[in-house]
Design a protein that fits this description.
Number of helices: 15
Protein name: Chromosome segregation protein Spo0J, contains ParB-like nuclease domain
CATH superfamily of the largest domain: Conserved hypothetical protein from pyrococcus furiosus pfu- 392566-001, ParB domain
Number of domains: 4
Organism: Streptomyces atratus
CATH architecture of the largest domain: Alpha-Beta Complex
Helix content: 40-55%
CATH class of the largest domain: Alpha Beta
Shape: globular
């Protein structure tokens, strides 16, 4: 039994028996491979005389979870069907299964792929422990912990699921503080959404929301560590993130969803992902897919004595990208 077999039991049902499925019914994977499939690996599989092992497919969406290279190889061979095992769990769990499968066998995921996958799993499964996510992605628990800190700050959930699938409770006061911050960031978020991210029950989230409305501390005084005796200490609710001043605002940017979609489209272009220069350009662009709320956290973390220098560097980098954009537009306008 592998270290995370117990964990996968908590993520959803087991795989179905193998069955033959028409290739035309299957959709491309929601793959952890940000640069898409490797054409050379597909060709090697297609030219091999060995039968292709079954692929894993998410039954509700018919998207491939594991085996996209094998599916493309089967198409290359001219096959009309391929052997499939179905997974019937939710989409979020399907992605976790895809990461685990691609880390464990086949063409290995790059470090960038595994790092990006860990960041996504931290958001979709915040109740998984650092060690559990590390075992799934092939990263160190320290690396996953650093990613969690960047995503959610120093506060932690009230419980975590370990590699063995067992739930281990942590300090519930931490979960309440996470919920208070999430409510401040998005007052319209549902109780269940906040509860899942904070690792507490919807009822507890409701209590935190009511306390914030009254101006009370989200953590009851009896839960405060080191408190000599209960006290009715009031505190103002956490302030939502303050938008930048009007004179610092820039022209409307492409929405984050559109940037991500365009980047994925470029990653699938063979003329980019199959050349060294193209891959370098894709890696450079990937750095700028950071979401707006993460930029605000970065700004808050910059030491005051470095602010001017970093601002100057950011402006200089932006000017370099603007020059590149202008050069790329020149042939089209000529």
């Amino acid at each position: 039994m592998s270290p995370h077999d117990g964990l996968l039991v908590t993520l959803g049902p087991e795989l179905s028996a193998v069955e033959a499925v028409p290739i035309g019914l299957l959709l491309r994977a929601d793959s952890p491979r940000r640069l898409g499939e490797n054409d050379e690996h597909v060709r090697a599989l297609a030219e091999s005389e060995e039968p292709l092992p079954p692929i894993v497919v998410h039954r509700p969406s018919m998207r491939v979870i594991d085996g996209m290279h094998r599916l493309l190889a089967a198409r290359w061979r001219g096959s009309s069907e391929i052997e499939v095992q179905f997974f019937d769990g939710p989409t979020e769990d399907a992605f976790v299964l895809a990461v685990r499968a691609n880390v464990g066998h086949g063409l290995p995921l790059s470090l960038a792929d595994r790092t990006a996958a860990a960041a996504r799993i931290i958001h979709s499964h915040p109740d998984l422990s650092d060690r559990a996510i590390a075992s799934l992605t092939g990263l160190s628990a320290k690396t996953v912990g650093a990613q969690r800190l960047r995503a959610f700050g120093p506060l932690q959930q009230s419980a975590r699921i370990g590699r063995d699938g067992r739930v281990r409770p942590l300090n519930s006061a931490q979960g309440r503080r996470i919920a208070a911050r999430l409510i401040a960031e998005d007052p319209t978020a549902s109780l269940r959404t906040i509860a899942r991210k904070a690792g507490i029950s919807p009822g507890t989230v409701r209590d935190v929301r009511e306390r914030l409305k009254r101006g009370d501390n989200p953590v009851p005084s009896r839960r405060q560590p080191g408190s000599p005796k209960p006290a009715s200490k009031r505190m103002p609710p956490p302030r939502p993130a303050t938008p930048p001043p009007a004179h610092h605002r820039y022209p409307a940017r492409m929405p984050a969803e559109a940037r991500e979609a365009m980047f994925r489209s470029l990653c699938r272009d063979p003329s980019l992902r199959m050349t060294e220069t193209g891959r370098l350009l894709l890696r450079m662009m990937e750095l700028h897919l950071t979401e707006d709320h993460q930029w605000h956290r970065i700004v808050e973390a910059v030491p005051a004595h470095c602010a001017d220098s970093i601002s100057a560097m950011a402006t200089a980098c932006a000017e370099v990208w603007q020059e590149l954009a202008a050069l790329l537009r020149e042939p089209a306008s000529a």
